Amino acid sequence: MSSSTKPAFDTKGLHPTVKMAGLVSFFTDFSTQMVGPLLPLFLTSVLGAPVWVYGLMEGVGAGIAGVLKVFAGWLSDRLGHRKWLMLVGYTISNLTKPVFAVTGSWGPVFALRQVERVGKGVRTAPRDALLADVTTASDRGQSFGYRRAMDSLGAALGPLVATAILWWSHDRIRLVFALTIIPGLAATLLLLRLRETRSGTETGPRPRPRLGLRHLPARFQRFMLAAGLLALATFSQGFLVLRARSLGMPVLVIPVAYFVMNGVASVLSMPSGRLGDRIGHRTMLLGGFALLALTYVGFSLAPAAAWIWPLMALYGVFIALVDGNQKVYATALLPQTDRGTGLGTFNALLGFAELAASLGGGLLWADAGPKLPFLAGAIIAAIAFVALWLLTDRSTQF
């Protein structure tokens, strides 16, 4: 069976570490997205916070995670181990979310969200570096795509479970938050079973990784600029929820719209990675950058809640095209000894750009309503497309 006709979740040939990392991502995002579509509504509707507070909360969290990604990636290179940093990060995130259930005002929610983002900052770069360690150029796109697919599958099912709990409990959002402890603990226990192995044939002492950008390849820095511009357009997905609500979508239905978005991303992520392995990850990224610009135009101009369904599906296609392929492309531009540091720096840049995007989106929303943030995001995404086209090497075969 050719790679173009393989089932979306065909795991034949994947490294066992990749499979286990996928399961950990599945349960973690199951937990995260039980909360995800409800948190902006809980913060603004139940606790009475203005939209700009939500934007500030998400932006500050992205900034905190960004700083930690650099140092966690560097530390994983320095130590030569990735798993235990992943364990610390995943455990912090998975034990924080249930505490949302006992908050009585938006201040504690704001603080808890930052703690949860600390966990994301600690785990992300070591995890991506570990996946790069155990894969080769020929299967890296498929492997990163599988991890993204499992992430999105959990993110698709989590909101469905949240909807069922809301229906059964008559809209008890706090109960949903409390029950995130179950998939969160499952993720942590599975991570304990992950076996950390390395590919390659390095021998002798490991060189000390270096922080900063100067020692990283120039073509990696150029790609970071284009990816950073896209991240500047990609504000928190909670704004999609708030846009759906502004168009009159019922609270009970919004998690189902999240299911559509993440379900599409889950089904398409692994095929997208495989196709990137065949035709080039840069090509896939160009398609994803252009699609985000068009999708944001749709969110800006949507006249009714019915439009949210196809737009969420398109956003899911964007996730599938960009997330895994972007990390594979970045990995290919880095020397193996600096993978953790380089990927940490890359993820940090995206985090800082998301900080600006979420804060700016919240302020624009508060000042001019829901349409302008999406229109601004579309313009920046279009600029990012041009930057990717001009600044990256189109002859590079990855």
Q: Can you put this structure into words, describing what you see?
A:
By secondary structure, the protein is mostly helical. It has a single domain (16-197, 217-391), classed as Up-down Bundle (Growth Hormone, Chain: A). The chain contains 15 helices and no strands. It has helices spanning 16-35, 39-46, 51-79, 83-96, 106-133, 140-169, 173-179, 181-192, 218-233, 238-246, 254-279, 281-301, 308-332, 339-368, 371-391. The longest helix is centred in the middle third of the chain and has 30 residues, at 140-169. The radius of gyration is 20 Å and the shape is globular. Mean pLDDT is 84; it is low at 199-205.
Brief rundown of the structure:
The chain has helices spanning 16-35, 39-46, 51-79, 83-96, 106-133, 140-169, 173-179, 181-192, 218-233, 238-246, 254-279, 281-301, 308-332, 339-368, 371-391. With 398 residues, it is mainly alpha-helical. The longest helix has 30 residues, at 140-169.
